[in-house]
UniProtKB/TrEMBL annotation:
InterPro entries: Bact_Sigma-Reg, PPM-type-like_dom_sf, PPM-type_phosphatase-like_dom. This is Serine phosphatase RsbU, regulator of sigma subunit. Gene3D superfamilies: PPM-type phosphatase domain. Keywords: Hydrolase. PROSITE patterns: PPM_2. GO terms for molecular function: phosphatase activity. PANTHER family: STAGE II SPORULATION PROTEIN E, STAGE II SPORULATION PROTEIN E-RELATED. Residues 136-386 form the PPM-type phosphatase domain. SMART domains: PP2C_SIG (SM00331).
Length: 409
């Protein structure tokens, strides 16, 4: 029986000896250990519309579209895919925990044998770990993922962001940001400390470098307050003071939230931001209360401290937060994408039992299509799900790798 563990161990032992540019060669050399003749790395581009081959020693590979290929189906469904017309190959999702990086193409005479699935997953996990660990030492991964030149403002923002998706047994958080190459004002952050997940979604005023510089300050102030141990109210006050001190006359709208993953208690401050939606049993139940504080940077205009809204979530509840670039996107005839269209789209995605990251990816594709791929403002959406571990994981079954291990959400 093929043992993917041997290949994974070999990769981890040998990766430190080379730079990121040598990962493709290293991975191809591990192919015989799993009975394969080739292993090719494909990375998702920034827009998550294409899978781009990381150049290796084998025959050249073409870029693949996520929407219309088996490789794309592996990426979106998080399941191994086999090609009936190419019985010698399979496509394996390339995941680190729950962050979707791309896919692996494994070419093997045994590709049609389901017994190859587990070794293939083991190799894919090892490759994903190497990509994340080694990509900081060079630019090859970034260059492959970029299909257009990235503006400096976007470079700043992407350098601030955590992974787009994170999950534990109790919760899932996933987000999406567009336009990828020219963003400026929207940014988000999250952190899990003990049983409390902290989430911040920010929309800074303006565009370009000035907006991204403000976004950098806002996120840094948010992290500093959180790591200092400030509560939610004092965190909002701290960010507000930093914005007024360093960028007077500007502001950022924000949603600041804390979710207790044991109890489902959600505490949230809405600082002049568009509302968030509560979804339950696949349907939008209601909008959470509107602004409970002034936008960050304008706190001096009111003597009242930010107010915290508390919401007791039910198991399986989801929170959808967004910036106004989503709802304000307009078609050629001036029709807004709007809140009703947003809610309808998410409800249909939930009923189709799509993984949360795929729901966000399809949402931003729909917003782009509504505005003919030309957004006037950053469009950012964030999805938070609470699922206590003692409940059935039916909605995660399609994310299960061989032998019942949850691969991602």
């Amino acid at each position: 029986m093929v043992d993917g563990g041997d290949a994974a161990r070999w990769l981890h032992l040998n990766a430190p000896r080379g730079g990121p540019d040598e990962l493709s060669l290293l991975v191809s050399r591990a192919a015989p250990a799993v009975g394969a003749t080739e292993i090719v790395i494909y990375l998702a581009d920034y827009t998550q519309s294409s899978l781009v081959p990381l150049v290796g020693p084998g025959p050249p590979r073409a870029e693949l579209t996520i929407e219309t290929t088996l490789a794309g189906r592996a990426f979106t469904s998080l399941q191994v895919q086999r090609a009936p017309d190419h019985p010698d190959r399979l496509w394996v999702p390339l995941l680190l925990g729950c962050e979707r990086l791309g896919v692996l193409e494994i070419v093997s005479p045994a590709a049609g044998d389901p017994a190859l699935d587990r070794p293939a997953w083991e190799v894919a996990v090892a490759v994903a770990q190497l990509l994340v660990n080694r990509r900081l030492y060079g630019d090859v991964v970034e260059r492959v993922r970029r299909r257009l030149p990235m503006q400096v403002a976007a470079e700043i923002v992407w350098g601030l962001l955590p992974p787009l998706t994170f999950a534990t047994d109790e919760l899932v958080i996933t987000a999406i940001l567009e336009p990828c190459y020219d963003v400026g004002g929207d940014v988000f952050d999250y952190a899990l400390n003990g049983d409390v997940l902290s989430v911040g979604l920010f929309d800074t005023c303006g565009h370009g470098i000035k907006a991204s510089a403000l976004a950098s300050l806002v996120v840094s102030a948010y992290r500093n307050a959180r790591r200092t141990g400030l509560d939610l109210v004092d965190t909002a006050i701290s960010i507000d003071r930093w914005v007024r001190s360093e960028h007077p006359g500007t502001f950022a709208t924000a949603l600041l939230a804390e979710l207790d993953r044991r109890t489902g208690l959600l505490r949230i401050i809405n600082a002049g931001h568009p509302g968030a939606m509560l979804l339950r049993d696949g349907r939008a139940v209601r909008a959470l209360p509107g602004p409970t504080a002034l936008p960050l940077g304008l706190g001096n205009l009111s003597a009242r401290r930010p107010r915290v809204h508390e919401e007791g979530l039910h198991p399986g509840d989801r929170i959808l937060a967004y910036t106004d670039g989503i709802t304000d996107a307009r078609s050629d005839d001036g029709e807004r994408f709007g809140l009703d269209r947003l809610v309808d789209f998410v409800e249909r995605a939930l009923n189709d039992q799509l993984p949360s990251p795929e729901t966000m990816r399809r949402l931003v594709r729909a917003v782009l299509a509504h505005q003919q791929d030309e957004l006037d403002d950053d469009a950012t959406a964030l999805f938070l799900e609470w699922q206590p571990p003692h409940l059935p994981l039916a909605h995660l079954e399609h994310l299960t790798v061989p032998h019942g291990t949850i691969a991602s959400t």
